[in-house]
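User: Continuing from earlier, I have the next pair ready.

Assistant: Great, send them over.

User: Here they are, in order.

Assistant: Folding the first of the pair now:
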Amino acid sequence: MDKVMDRCGLFGLYDQDTFDTARVIYYGLFSLQHRGVEAAGICVNHDGKFLYKKDKGLVTDVFDEDSLKKLPGRIGIGHVLRYAGNDAVENAQPIVIRYTNGHMAVAMNGGLTNLEELRHELELTGAVFQTMEAAEVVSVLISRARTQYPTIEEAIAHVMPMLKGGYAMLVMTRHKLIGVRDSHGLRPLMLGKKKNSWFLSSETCAFNELDVDYVKDIDPGEIAVINQRGVNFLDVGADQGSALCIFEYIYHSRPDSEISGLEVYKARAAMGRELAKAALTNADAVIWVPDSGLATATGYSEMSGIPLVDAFVKNRYFGTKLLKPDAEMFGRGINMKLSVIRSRVAGKRVVVVDDSMIAGTTAKIFVSALKEAGAKEVHLRISAPPVRFVCPYGAASPDASALEAGGRSVDEICRDIGADSLAFLPQEAMLRACAEAGCGFCCACFDGNYPA
């Protein structure tokens, strides 16, 4: 739905039981598939020998029984990649390098605002890069720092102040699995445990499906070091304030995940209730946009008393392998993903609840589709403020000129989309809906206040 794709998925395992490490990571990545559909990769540590497989495509495309059998080991990390265009194969993670102390594998979620500066400085000193990913640049920085420090975690702590932006990171060495969050905690990372084994994941939904006990969120500016003795924590400092990306609650995360003590579904439903208080309209039905709009539409329906109606059918087989339509067929191409059940909307005034609006392209198409299906009125309600600023922290989002809300009034956007009315959730109401979370938030794409 024209979303900000600022997300990747991370999953790691330090196996001290009898788990099939690669297979467990495979299932963990499958649970996190919504965070990235372009590429997937797994690297395992087999007695100091690093074995890995990564390729473009979904987790189920990249791995099968044979490939997983070729990845024995007791420590491993995995990654699903967000949008990477034609470079999905080259930029697939984890990044694996050999350095003076052996092998190291790195996987990252997020983006660095000073990536090109760091890359250029390293190239001037002889570094050669094979990908465009921040993980490769960071792996080189860590490997060089390792020559000055006795442990890998101290080398990482030395490198962290150089990294400007928002990220969560997994690092695997011969004897350790390490999880890292940036000093603002813009990207999520959780620690879990099952029996004697330790897990790291971008979301708790993967823990739920693998029957892993949640232990804690890795704190902003914290390094979690896992070895055969257990877990130790190194605090590099989060004195600049917690600022989790608010889009984790709006769209990125699965509704059954919990971040900083707040379930994502609960936050979205609260946003829907706040939206109904702020922008109620006379209507016959509340319609949700699959899939992330369900919780917010439910909250809106509960608060407004307007019945919730299924009106969109989503083609579950729509994905990255579908041939993309040309410009002339673009609208029909979108409708290959969402279709309207005419009998549910004909002659009705409908409120369509969606979680966010970036470029507005999809909103124009489904508003038009609802009216063509006979809807008497179409009122669009967005459970987030207007996105007016570009995210510099790794988002594959449009530039400022492509943002629907950039420099335009709500009335102008409404006319452009073709809705009968349009309302966005005020930022203060959005934050009220997330008040139970034990963290602060980055809302830079809404207000331009960049924390890093």
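And the other member of the pair:
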Amino acid sequence: MTAADLVLHGARLLTLAPLREERPRVGPAAGDVGAVMDGFVAARDGAIVATGHGAALQTVERVEDAVDVDVHGRVVMPGFVDPHTHLCYAGERWEEFASRRSGADYLAVLAAGGGIHATVRATREATDEQLLTLLRRRIGDAVELGTTTIEVKSGYGLEPDEELRQLRLLARAKADAPIDVAVTYLAAHALPAPYTDDRKRFIRDATNAIAAIVDGSLAEAVDAFVEKGVFDVDDVRPLFGAAKKAGLAVTMHADQLNDVGASVFAARMHARSADHVANASAEGIRALARAEIPAVLLPGSAFFVGYPPPDARRFMSARVPIALASDHNPGTSPLEGMPTAIALGVTLCGLTPHEAIVAATINAAHALGRGGRVGALVAGRRADILVLDTDDERELAYRMGAPLIAEVYASGRRVA
């Protein structure tokens, strides 16, 4: 008998279990959700101990005070993994949104001191407690919408001291969050005014901050916005080299608006992921495929900014692992929650509903270096589990914005 303190049964169970070996899903596997009818999942002390169907439930013994729920045919699946967000900010950018919808170019807004720079000013002016309150609220909002693992970047400090401030606040938010928070040092998001005429000095100072980040265990990855008019491959090469030498993962905003060779560079750097990639070249896609690096698609950004969204079929046909993320940020993707990212991944990027679910769970977990820990309902993994208020998971894509998240469990404990 297997002892459990949480049992959900009578489910349409989506296990997302590895088909053969633990690797990001590509090819036909990228649309296989591992559906089990009349399924159950059992957990104890925050970890999954068993899954199965039908009569196999008799092998599970409930400990005293166990939570035992018959979900009556509803979908039970892994919690969502959101591998790219910018939750640490203050202020909103209503005017910029309106001007862009009237035809203003995003990079032109940035060059004129708006965009990221506007959020930097508001974030610097906020107190630590104000930022913490905002961070905790946004993490809580993500939980309500089914996210059980989330990446959060710094990046609205720009100068090293302000970036370190944000990372320390993120550490505090992570410590009391009900879910797993992966923190990323977005070292090169935009060039701040004091460095306008000395890009190399900015990169040098941003790189020097890595030592303090490692000493304080403040981040697990380093990121940069590699884009025309922002930072190019040669600019960020020493930053990423230092990050890897220090034992940190690297990821990057790659080829979002223009092909600048960032996807090829991501492959050469053995990056954890390449994100955005809407304008990745054929060479870049082939390079990501060879290196098995997940391409994190951010359809919310394409939707809000108005540029052509990434074509998922280009990546799928080349056998590049696809992940989805919300890219929640105040300027270019004020998108709330992974269900909307799933729906947009289908309607804008060309994923099937099941491919989008794979991209939002197990492949997103791989994009955060957590492929063996979360993203699937498998014995030994963290008991991050969703109950949907539907008997067909495709409704996540079909009914965009519908309130389908019925119950959320993180490490076996109900959090929403």
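Worth noting for the second one:
The chain has two domains: 2-78+375-414, 80-367. The CA atoms of residues 98 and 104 lie 9 Å apart.
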